[in-house]
Amino acid sequence: MKTMDCKTIALIAGDGQLPLEIARRLTCKGCPPVVYSFGEHAGRLSKYALELVRLSGLSLGFLFDDMRSRGIKEIIMAGVVPKTLMYHQGLQDSKLRQLLKKLHSRDDHNLLANIVSAFEVSGFLVVGYRDLISDWLATEGHIAGRYVTEEELDDVNYGRKVAKVLLPLSFGQTLVIHKRAVVAVEAMEGTDAMLLRAGSLTRGGIVLKMMRPDQDERYDLPTVGIKTLQNMSNAGLKCLAIEADRTIIIEPDEFKRYAESFDIAVLGVRH
What we know:
By secondary structure, the protein is of the alpha/beta class. It has 2 domains: 6-126, 3-Layer(aba) Sandwich (Rossmann fold); 136-269, LpxI C-terminal catalytic domain (Cytidine Deaminase, domain 2, 3-Layer(aba) Sandwich), CATH 3.40.140.80. It is 38% helix and 19% strand. It contains 10 helices and 13 strands. It has helices at residues 17-28, 42-45, 60-69, 83-87, 94-102, 108-121, 150-166, 191-201, 226-234, 252-262, and strands at residues 9-13, 34-37, 51-54, 74-78, 125-126, 141-144, 174-178, 181-185, 206-209, 223-224, 239-243, 248-249, 265-269. The strands form 3 sheets. It has a 6-stranded mixed beta sheet with strand order 6-13-11-9-7-8, sandwiched between helices. The two termini are 24 Å apart.
C-alpha cells in the first residue's frame, strides 16, 4: 500500500473481522482512520477510529459530502456489505439509484467496480489494504490441518478447471466438489449458506475458493476464517483449497488450531 496522509484516510467498513483488524493496524501505525461502518462491529471499531460514522444505508451523496467536509482523500474498503444495502431501494439514495440504472449487470463484481469508479470520479482515491495484512494472506501448499489425500487433490484440480469457466461469469467463487461431481456453486447467498446447502446433499468432498483473474485486489480479496471451518465441519466437508496470495485467512493462528481440531486439510493453490 502506498504511503498515506494519515489525516485524510477513511475506512468504509462492512461486516466481519477484517475491517476491525485494518483499523487496528492503521491506528498502531499512527494513522487512525475515519470509519464509516455498515457492520456489526461498529462499537468495537470505535476505539480504532479517529471518528466513527454509522451508516444505515448506502447513500453515496452523503458519503461524498461528508468525506469532502473532513478533507478525506483516500479510502480503504473492506468487509462484507449486506446485500440489502445494494438492492433494497429504501436504503439507497438518488446517486446510487442512478448508478444502478446504468449498469448492464448487477453482479457483485460489476456493482463494486462502478461504486469504486463513482468515488474516484468524485476525487477520492481507493487504495488497497493487502500490504497492511500481508501476514494474513494464504501461502501456496499445505497451510493447516492434516495433509490432503490423493482423491481430494484430484477433486481440487478438477474444481480449478470448473472455476476457470465460472469465475469470468461473476459467480462460482466457491465450489464444492465430490468425486469429480459439482455438488454446489456459490452465488448471491454467500459461502456460508452454500456450505450448509452442500452438506444437505452429500457428506464428503472438497471446498475450493478462488477469485476471478480481473478481480480488483484493492477491495475485493476473498476471506476464510473459523466460521468457514465450522460450517465445513457441520457439512461433513474435510478439505479446503484457497487461492495463494489472493485469499485472506482471518486470524491465521487460531484458524490453524481449528483446522487441526476439525481434522480439515487446508492448502493454497494457484489458477
